[in-house]
Design goal:
By secondary structure, the protein is mostly helical. The chain has a domain of 201 residues. The protein contains eleven helices and four strands; from the N terminus they run ααααβββααααβααα. A two-stranded antiparallel ribbon has the order 1-4. It has a two-stranded antiparallel sheet with strand order 2-3. α1 runs parallel beside α5, α2 packs parallel to α4 and α5 packs antiparallel against α8. The model has no long low-confidence stretch (mean pLDDT 88).
Length: 292
């Protein structure tokens, strides 16, 4: 039963990584850039939901909507001010800008809410008892997995069936050709940032609900691990981000349980290195030769 408990915990954690990784992989797949400030959007979503519940006494569902709306607006603003002027710039300039935006968001949170960790309220409490109480599954874990599956299904349908989703796929293939076909590339990229940031906000609420702490650096390590999950599954692939997130969460949970709490992160990144040595494009990624 212990193994099953650790496995469920890993799937729950992996679902959070998958939600964050979806934002990474969408932005990379369409804009061909790595938004390393994405992890800090998680933290902003956590603080917005925290303030909505703790200070305004709003219901949980409304706090989640407010967090998603705030992070959506933040994502669009960051894209317009920081990344849009660098659309034709070298990738190194974009990378440095993303790191600068990350530090800006962290320090803005530090000035606004202080350095001390906040005690995040238990938005989803209670456990599900199975096998006569031998297996206890927190309801927050079940909700996290369910939300991830629903969002994954909705996002896949959106990308494949809607006009905007098809525009995103066209921009991912060739932005120049998409623009010649009448697609507003700038608006499409902004929408991609908006969707990715909303997913990050939801992930932030679920992450803080599981671990009950919130600080200006809350999103740093989950953001790095979610980027690792996106690369693990095949960056640019939505199913790959989902699979990579789940596998990463399970590997981390089992490593903490059976090997070492201190070495868990090292084991996660070591597995990534091994996978990339065997399959450089990731588990579900496709190798695309660069045209010269």
């Amino acid at each position: 039963m212990e193994f099953l408990s650790y496995l469920i915990s890993g799937i729950s954690l992996g679902s959070v990584y998958a939600l964050i990784a979806l934002g990474y992989t969408m932005v990379y797949g369409i804009a061909k850039m790595l938004n390393f400030a994405h992890g800090d959007v998680i933290m902003i979503g956590g603080y917005v939901s925290f303030c909505a519940v703790s200070y305004l006494s709003l219901p949980v569902w409304l706090a989640v909507i407010l967090a998603a709306a705030a992070c959506t607006a933040l994502g669009v603003v960051v894209e317009r001010l920081a990344y849009k002027p660098l659309r034709s710039a070298p990738s190194l300039a974009v990378l440095i800008t993303a790191i600068g935006v990350s530090y800006f968001l962290q320090n803005a949170a530090l000035l606004t809410w202080g350095a001390a960790s906040k005690s995040y309220p238990a938005l989803i409490s209670g456990t599900l008892e199975l096998f006569g109480g031998q297996l206890s599954i927190p309801y927050v874990s079940l909700v996290t997995v369910a939300v991830c599956l629903i969002i994954m299904a909705a996002l896949t349908t959106f990308i494949s069936r809607t006009k905007l989703g098809k525009a995103m796929r066209a921009c991912s293939e060739d932005k120049g050709a998409a623009q010649l076909m009448g697609i507003n590339v700038n608006a499409t990229i902004s929408m991609t940032f908006a969707i990715g940031s909303a997913l990050a906000a939801i992930a932030g609420v679920l992450l803080c609900s599981s671990y009950f702490t919130l600080s200006p650096t809350t999103g740093s390590m989950p953001g790095i691990k979610a980027f690792t999950a996106a690369v693990f599954g095949g960056i640019g692939s939505i199913p790959g981000a989902f699979l990579g997130g789940l596998l990463l969460g399970v590997i981390e949970a089992l490593a903490k349980a059976y090997i070492s709490m201190n070495l868990a992160n090292s084991i996660v990144f070591a597995v990534l290195i091994v996978v990339l040595l065997v399959k450089p494009a990731g588990l579900l990624g496709k190798y695309v030769p660069e045209k010269v």
